[in-house]
Structures are given as structure tokens and as C-alpha cells.
Amino acid sequence: MRNLFFLAVFILVNVFRTDAQENVVVTDVKVTFFVPARTDDKDVNTQISATLYTGMGKRVAMLDKCCGNIHFPDDNYTSSTYQLDMRATIFKSDIQSGYFDLHIDPVGNDSWFFVPTFQIFFSDGTKVIIKGEDSTAPYTKREVSQQAPDTSFPFHL
């Protein structure tokens, strides 16, 4: 009986959100890659996938197999900004912490360094920029390669 009570309270809280902050949803997610000078570049045929997750592991947005025909040179190059496709409706309050996963699909031998910048936009007109080189971010330059094609970027808003 006690479990039913808590379930009912949980449903009521999530269905009838009254706080303005609680009704703000994620509307858009974007990523840009910066490739520092004198590092290794991204080969033209390497594809990139990026996914935004909540702290509880729910997939929010995804960029799937992007940039397979674009070379990222290693001369302080900043890529275009790529939009992730929204996969779920997520409230701002549900994404106070989370993580971005990045995966590459290289053709042959490719290894490259980059600093990502993620942007999360909300329905109230605000946005959060999570930049790899900021002192508030827990990461800076990262390397991905055919031997280690995955890396994660945790964040707290």
C-alpha cells in the first residue's frame, strides 16, 4: 500500500508540474569540434556519433554518423556546428547532470585530438554552453582512435 502511495505522488508530481522551471524543456542540442594545432587531425572518411544522456542514462539527443566526408585539419580548426536530433522530451530539471558520449567509426587508422563545445537550448529561451576548455568543465583535449573509439563528457548544470 505504501508503494502505491509513493507511485501516485510521483505520477502527480510529474504530470501536474506547476513550477515554471519544471515546465522548461530541452528544445535543441548542438556540438562543435575544435582541433588544436600540432595534434592529429580527423581523416575525411571517419564518421562521428554524439549522444546526450540524462544523469539517469535516458537518451535525449543524437548525432548519428556525421562528418564522414569532412576533413578536420590539425591547425586550430573549428568545425561547423552540428545539430543533434531530439529523441525524447526532457525537462530542464531532469538534465541538471548528464553526459555526452562521442563515438567514431574510422576507416583504417585514424586518431585525432579535439575539444568539444556542446550547447543545450531550452524552451524558455535560455541556453547552456558546455565548453571543454572552460575551468568549470571536467575535461579538455581528448583523443579518439580506432583502438579507443569512445569517450564520455560528464556535466553538471
Give your account of this protein's structure.
The chain is 9% helix and 45% strand. It is mostly beta strands. It has a single domain, classed as Lipoxygenase-1 (Sandwich), CATH 2.60.60. Strands 1, 2, 3, 4, 5, 6, 7, 8, 9 and 10 form a 10-stranded antiparallel beta sheet that branches. Strand 7 (111-122) and strand 8 form a beta hairpin. The chain is elongated. The termini are far apart. 22% of the residues are buried. Residues 1-19 and 134-139 have low confidence and may be disordered.
Secondary structural class: mainly beta
Q: Per CATH, which architecture?
A: Sandwich
The CATH superfamily title:
PLAT/LH2 domain
Write down the CATH class.
Answer: Mainly Beta
| Total beta strands | 10
Q: Estimate what percentage of residues fall within beta strands.
A: 35-45%
Mean pLDDT: 76
CATH-derived topology:
Lipoxygenase-1
Span between termini:
36 Å
What profile does the largest beta sheet have?
Answer: 10 strands, antiparallel
The overall number of domains is 1
Number of helices: 1
Runs with pLDDT <50, length 5+? 1-19, 134-139
CA gyration radius, whole angstroms: 18 Å
Portion of residues within helices? under 10%
Could you write a compact summary of the structure shown?
By secondary structure, the protein is mostly beta strands. The chain contains one helix and ten strands; from the N terminus they run H-E-E-E-E-E-E-E-E-E-E. The N terminus is likely disordered.
